[in-house]
Amino acid sequence: MMFEPHRTSDKKARPLSGLLQPIRCEWQEQFDSITQAEVLRLMNHVLEREDTIGFPGPVAWDEGMRLMESTAQAVAAGEKHVLLFRTDDQAIVGHVLLSRRTLPNCRHIGEIARTFVHPDYRGLSVVRSGLRAVLDRAEAIGIDVLQLDVRAGTRIARLWEALGFRVIGEMEDYARVIGQRFAGYFMYQHVAVLRARLDGPRIGA
């Protein structure tokens, strides 16, 4: 297995601080191989700094592309929905994966997973834009409740709690990273409640 060569000049993979562009959110009706590769570069860039999105570090290129191709097949089948955050020059700086439960009695539940944003583009404006896009898609496909799981005590866990997601369970042995064990939370929020929260007073105000 080989890692993709480091691209120091690839601005699409590594936007520069101080030269940030406005972003827009786009749902991918097709998740082609070029886009898959760009998402994998972004994911590995994030994994160089943190290990809270399911991997202890950057993913080997062939393994990562198999993961992306699996996601592409699920998107084509309508089983998963990929949201990308793009800059004006089409650089991908964020990713969210939304899926809907398949059991008939649970089709009203959707899961948010594999959420990562380039460190230079993190902030409440990005969070709000992304969440509104997720809510729009959730309402369009009949999802009334959003659920997720996250490592306890992390920045992203605190953000989900600030957004009103409720902890409904904690697992002490949630993640194992290079010999260490970490606890994790299982959380949920109703789509209508989150919509009202986003449309109300600004978070942190």
- Strand proportion, as a percent range, falls in 25-35%
Count of strand segments = 7
Mean pLDDT: 89
Query: What does the largest sheet look like?
Result: 7 strands, mixed
Distance between the termini: 48 Å
Helices and strands, in N-to-C order? EHHEEEHEHEEH
Give the count of helical stretches.
5
Describe, in short, the structure shown.
The protein is 32% helix and 30% strand.
Overall description:
The protein has about 200 residues and is an alpha+beta fold. It is built from 5 helices and 7 strands, in the order E-H-H-E-E-E-H-E-H-E-E-H. It has helices at about 35-45, 60-75, 125-140, 155-160, 190-200, and strands spanning about 25, 80-85, 90-100, 110-115, 145-150, 165-175, 180-190. It has a 7-stranded mixed β-sheet, sandwiched between helices. Helix 3 links the parallel strand 4 (about 110-115) and strand 5 (about 145-150). It is globular, with a radius of gyration of 17 Å.
List key phrases describing it.
7 strands, alpha+beta, single chain, disordered N terminus, 205 residues
Topology:
Blueprint: E1 23-27, H1 33-47, H2 61-76, E2 80-87, E3 92-100, E4 109-117, H3 124-140, E5 145-151, H4 155-162, E6 166-177, E7 180-190, H5 191-199
Parallel strand pairs: 4-5
Antiparallel strand pairs: 1-2, 2-3, 3-4, 5-7, 6-7
Helix pairs in contact: 1-2, 3-5
